Amino acid sequence: MKFRTRAIHVGNRRDKQTGAVVPPIHMASTFVQPGAGDWGEFDYSRSGNPTRKNVEQTIASLESGSQALAFSSGMAATHAVTMLLESGDRILAGADIYGGTYRLLHEIVSRTGIHVSLADSCDLTAFEANITPHTKLMWIESPGNPLMSISDIAGFADLAKRHDILLAVDNTFATPVLTRPLELGADIVMHSATKYLGGHSDLVGGALVVNDKELYDRLYFVQNATGAILGPFESFLLSRGLKTLELRVRAQSETALRLAESLHEHPRVARVLYPGLPSHAGHELAAKQMDGVFGGMLSIETTGGYATAKKLVESTKLFQLAVSLGAVESLIEQPASMSHASYDPDDRATHGIIDGLVRLSVGLEAFEDLKADLEAVL
Amino acid sequence: MASAHSESDNKITGAPSKKQGVSTLSVHAGEARRKPCNAITDPIFCSATYTFSDTQAVIDFIEHSQPREEYGRYGTPGERVVEQKLATLEGGAEALLFSSGMAAIVGVMMAKLKAGDEVIFFNECYHRSREFCTKHLSRFGVVTHQIETCNYEAMAAAINDNTRMLISESPTNPHLSCVDLERFAELGSKYHVETLIDATLATPYNLRPIERGIDFVMHSATKYLGGHNDLLAGVVIAKDRAAMQPIRNLRGIMGPVNSPHNVYLLQRGLKTFQLRMGRHNANGQAIAEFLEDHPRVNKVYYPGLPSHEYHEIAKRTMGGYGGLVTFLVEDADWRATADVVDAMRIPRIAPSLGGVESLVEQPLVMSYFEASPEERRAWGIYDNMIRISCGIEDTDDLITDLKQALER
Fold first, then answer.
1. Which residues in A lie closer than 8 A to residue B271 (C-beta atoms)?
2. Catalytic: which of B73, B296, B315, B348?
């Protein structure tokens, strides 16, 4: 079955007892067991819940994985991956990553004696130079946040195999509609399901997907032992959101490309960062790695500095000023003061997150309406 | 063409506010720019009742009918948002939500009719609507007349001084006949009778009857508006605010209202309304064309086919033709027809329509099993009839499945 058919049907088998076309929401925290020490499929909802299991199956299918785990947030999912490591190990992450991931790695994970460093993930050779015998995990995003840098996932997978390192890819921006990292050889796919997967700005969730039973078992152990699971209501809303995932992402990508093209011409825009533009450094790679379109996220560098960008993000009407992304409503923000405020200022400067940068998350509104909104304030 | 929705077609004309695209309206219409706590989405107000600061506030509310919440049965904040969104999409003055489509149509009739009044309706329609008219309205002394669908002369001839409402579906279920809405509205205005169109199968994406002079539009919002087969709701949209007042009053008394949770799911479903309808239209058209060319099919009912009896009206008034396709299996008795239904893998056998999942049913079995052969003949329900509600799955997956079901 094709992607959009699986998004609707995998994990959503008709309810055997009632025939319900939409599976019920199982709120139960605990499940009655057949006998003492004789365990049924579900025992306690931290360890497994039918509604959560349904959405995990759907996500696994869409990411071409064997299994998925749904978490209470993207950060909880990311944290679970780092808990596969131990003191003395090293994490090597791409430089263009979400500010919250940066904070987690540098301020929480590092406390446990795990060393964290960043490198430019657009340059495989330079990245490889940072690998040491203690490097146990590589963490990349593609497109990266907020610079939309494109990383060669297949190249990284090759690197990971040669050095026997786990490769985790945050696929939040691309979504499995456009890129499926497991097919390219990655070990773990991570999602902030809050974004495109949920898609309606009304749930917070995360997911990990793998294609390896042994790795799944280790991650499952971490999740069950630490408890950051996705609740039944959120699981249901996430499942409902996935049914329109492909429609949403393709429509948002088409609008984003048209906006990028029109902004590219605008005198008050110094640079548009969008992998769909031939001028983008990662365009060719993105054309190969992303399925036909380039996602709904783009950033622009205004000709002014911090104050100009601040005024811009505060003036649009349809684009609403908020962090987060990937939803039906268009959002706008200034990375330097919002999504990437937790970056060390020097790291921001080193990695090109300039003060005049503005990040757009393109929603489902009509292109003409969004274009008019931006033009009115530019 | 089903895919004839260009950006400019998507502009809603006659909407009360701005001329924005359907997708923009689906996401934003009716919603406050600043929501409580600056949240991006509306909160779910579960509160059953709403407090007053002091006694004077209660008196002010009663004496000046200040617009505010009072008690959940009279309206809730979430409900008002969705009502405004639907009124905007439909190009009407006001919308009113009900707990189901049937509650909506019953609500209109109970509010508008009294003993001695008469109602005229085109007879191709949802069987429960017909049943309410013929079996229940009669108990209250309301006379109903069933007229052959789209026979405007017969409808005009049936109008008398007691006639209060003219009712039809468009497109009708399951034959997809399309009413000439201007003509229907003209009958209403000529004889001073209110007109109501059940446009559930069309949705405001494809058809906006109020812009063509109709007084009331209703939908089973369970179908395309909710769109995910996971809620029941109904809605009535009025061209004129004053005409809605008695219906709103009666709803407050009878109480067929939505729970706040349900309203939230409806609002969430509407966010992707434009996207989903584009896919439903595309799948409906493709499957209708596939079926029309298939040797085991002898007739397809779909307004997007040039062979359809009402294709010209549909082409003139609709932007697309929806996901519902009805067809007759060649030389098949009811059992051979059921075999085709049972052989389908993707569409599930179930009543209802308009959700992301494709559904299939044999009208004879699902809705008319207890009707007499004479009644079924009169209503055009044939033993070899199958109705498919095309979801938003991949078109090729659906066609491959139908093909194997027809050719096994």
1. 200, 328, 364
2. B73
pLDDT in tens, B199-238: 999 999 999 999 999 999 999 999 999 999 999 999 999 9
For A262-274, what is each residue's pLDDT tens digit?
Answer: 999 999 999 999 9
What structural domains and CATH numbers belong to chain B? 22-271 (3.40.640.10), 273-407 (3.90.1150.10)
The pTM of the full predicted model, rounded to 2 decimals, is: 0.89
Question: With contacts defined as CB-CB under 8 Å, which chain B residues touch A318?
Answer: 24, 28
A329 contact B CB<8A:
yes
ω into A143 cis (within 30 of 0): yes
Distance CA(B313)–CA(B311), nearest Å, equals 6
Query: Which residues in B lie closer than 8 A to residue A324 (C-beta atoms)?
Result: 40
Average pLDDT along chain A? 95
Whether A327 contacts chain B with CB within 8 A:
yes
- Domains by residue range for chain A, with CATH: 3-242 (3.40.640.10), 246-377 (3.90.1150.10)
B323 touches chain A (CB under 8 A): no
Given the residues A46, A103, A218, A258, select the one marked as catalytic.
Answer: A46
pLDDT digits (tens, 9 = 90+) for B308-362: 999 999 999 999 999 999 999 999 999 999 999 999 999 999 999 999 999 999 9
Burial category of A239 from C-beta neighbours within 10 Å (exposed 0-12, middle 13-18, buried 19 and up)? buried
B223 is a catalytic site residue: yes
CB A93 within 8 A of CB A140: yes
Distance CA B21, CA A7 (A): 27
CB contact under 8 A, A366 and B272: no
Instruction: Locate A48 and state its tokens.
Output: 């497994």
Distance from CA of A259 to the nearest CA of B (A): 15
pLDDT of residue A142: 95
Give the strand pairing for A206-210 and A67-71.
antiparallel
Looking at the predicted structure, is the pLDDT value of residue B33 above 90?
Answer: no
**Active site (annotated) includes residue A195:** yes
- Give yes or no for A371 touching B (CB within 8 A): no
| Cross-chain residue pair A240–B268, CB shorter than 8 Å | yes
Q: Is the pLDDT of residue B9 over 50?
A: no
CA dihedral A80, A81, A82, A88 (to 10 degrees): 130
